[in-house]
Write a structure and sequence with these properties.
It contains four helices and six strands; from the N terminus they run H-E-E-H-E-H-E-H-E-E. By secondary structure, it is α+β, with helices and mostly antiparallel strands.
Length: about 140
């Protein structure tokens, strides 16, 4: 039947008993499959990570200003990576940096959940917070 119509016989589902086949133009079939795959890729969620940098001696006003930015980022659906950067001899204030990040995480608990607790990586102490799922 496919040869009479000048089209191709394409096997759609081989695992089913009996196998499912369709009479279509094969090049058009491939084009439509590529188009569907491209649409699915475009609809996939893109993860955006916003960085917020603190120092171990960050002032209260600066802290609140950065916290408000983090709240806005989480409400937009972005992840927030907060980190304390230690320069030179500031590395002795690790505990102060960790307390700052834990305070930051506890104040943002209503807007997002902690995905990675504070951890040292070189001269940085990182904390990762992801947005809460809205139902």
């Amino acid at each position: 039947m496919a040869e009479e119509m000048g089209l191709d016989l394409v096997e759609i589902a081989a695992q089913v008993d009996p196998p499912v086949c369709k009479i279509v133009d094969y090049s058009k079939f491939l084009y439509e499959q590529k188009k569907k795959a491209k649409e699915m890729k475009a609809k996939a969620a893109k993860i955006v990570i916003k960085d917020i940098r603190f120092g171990p001696h960050t002032d209260e006003h600066d802290y609140n200003f950065k916290k408000n930015h983090a709240i806005k980022f989480l409400q937009e659906g972005c992840k927030v990576k907060a980190y304390v950067f230690f320069r030179g001899r500031e590395i002795v204030f690790k505990e102060q940096g960790e307390l700052l990040l834990l305070k930051f995480a506890s104040e943002l608990e209503a807007y997002g959940k902690v995905e990675q607790l504070p951890a040292m990586e070189g001269k940085k102490m990182n904390l990762l917070i992801g947005p809460k799922k809205v139902k």
